[in-house]
Amino acid sequence: METTFKNKVALVTGGASGIGRATALAFAKKGAKVAVVDWKENDEMVDLIKELGSEAIFIKCDVSKTDDVKAMVARTIAAFGRLDYAFNNAGIEGASASTQDCSEENWDKTIGVNLKGVWLCMKYEIPEILKQGKGAIVNCASVAGLVGFAGLPAYVASKHGIVGLTKTTALECATQGIRVNVVCPGVIQTPMIDRLTGKTKEGIERFKGFEPIGRFGLPEEIANAVIWMCSDEASFVTGHVMAVDGGFTAQ
Ligand code: NAD
């Protein structure tokens, strides 16, 4: 079955960089019109998607803010008239600090963007996808949604929260035509990982050491999983927690 999203509309948060960028391009390659969402201005994605023969808009939005998220969905509908798929991917790593040293500000910001942001996005996306009677949402958690990481309590709590939230929303939507799944990437070569490794030899080797497969994943390898979970090939897949992690959580 050849996946095509022709005449469909996909929304990707955190679409200006890394995993979101690769997934927005992957949706476009499959024919979808794409709403690329990010809190950082971006002037390349719309052109890149046009070069792929599809249509796109860029929406500046902080996913942790209700008014921004409402406007994000409204602008998508105003531009394209419908919403079929959403990849709720925007996230931050937050500051590294142990549970007792984590500041309240770091806790609130990390949970606010990563967990509240995914909830807010689904809250306003679902009514629009329901109008189509069929669609799919994929949320982006992490291997940190499945196992603990010393020094990242807020990030780990936010990602575990996304896993539970996804399962709950999947149950709520199960008979309504919307499948809701969550992808848990391992260590993926993106600007976020560059920040975490500091791009130092020791940092890179430490993070590579987490990966049985012996290398970092590519953003496109996460995009492939998201596209599959949105496609009709995954028509019986909902509430699923998919690790795409080079064996990270098999250890
Ligand atoms: P990235 O930093 O390259 O991209 C994240 C994008 O999200 C950026 O463009 C950023 O501006 C945007 N963003 C952040 N906060 C936002 C907000 N409040 N509103 C709108 N946009 C916002 O990082 P990435 O590695 O591509 O990460 C994407 C997702 O994948 C994140 O949720 C991250 O936690 C998750 N993840 C990444 C890895 C990895 O190894 N890179 C592993 C597991 C999970």
Structural description of this entry:
This protein has 251 residues and is an alpha/beta fold. Helices cover 43% and strands 15% of the residues. It contains 8 helices and 7 strands. The chain has helices spanning 18-29, 45-51, 66-80, 104-130, 153-173, 191-197, 201-208, 219-230, and strands at residues 9-13, 33-38, 56-60, 85-88, 135-140, 178-185, 241-244. It has a 7-stranded parallel β-sheet with strand order 3-2-1-4-5-6-7, with helices on both faces. Strand 4 (85-88), helix 4 and strand 5 form a beta-alpha-beta unit. It is globular. The protein starts with 8 loop residues before the first strand and ends in a 7-residue tail after the last strand. 47% of the residues are buried. It binds nicotinamide-adenine-dinucleotide.
Task: Summarize the structure in short.
The protein is of the alpha/beta class. Helices cover 43% and strands 15% of the residues. Helix 1 (18-29) crosses helix 8 and helix 3 packs parallel to helix 4.
CATH H-level superfamily title: NAD(P)-binding Rossmann-like Domain
Highest CATH level, the class: Alpha Beta
Number of strands: 7
Tell me the domain tally: 1
For the residues shown, what is the average pLDDT?
98
Structural class: alpha/beta
**Relative strand content:** 15-25%
Q: What would you report as the Rg, rounded to the nearest angstrom? A: 17 Å
Shape by Cα distribution: globular
The parts where pLDDT drops under 50 for at least 5 residues are none
CATH topology heading = Rossmann fold
The strand line-up of the biggest sheet is: 3-2-1-4-5-6-7
The CATH architecture classification is 3-Layer(aba) Sandwich
Quaternary assembly: single chain
The molecules bound to the chains, other than polymers, are: nicotinamide-adenine-dinucleotide
Pattern of helices and strands: EHEHEHEHEHEHHHE
Distance between the termini: 34 Å
The largest sheet is:
7 strands, parallel
Compute the number of helices: 8
Helix content: 40-55%
InterPro entries: NAD(P)-bd_dom_sf (IPR036291), Sc_DH/Rdtase_CS (IPR020904), SDR_fam (IPR002347)
Family: Belongs to the short-chain dehydrogenases/reductases (SDR) family.
GO molecular function: oxidoreductase activity
Protein name: SDR family oxidoreductase
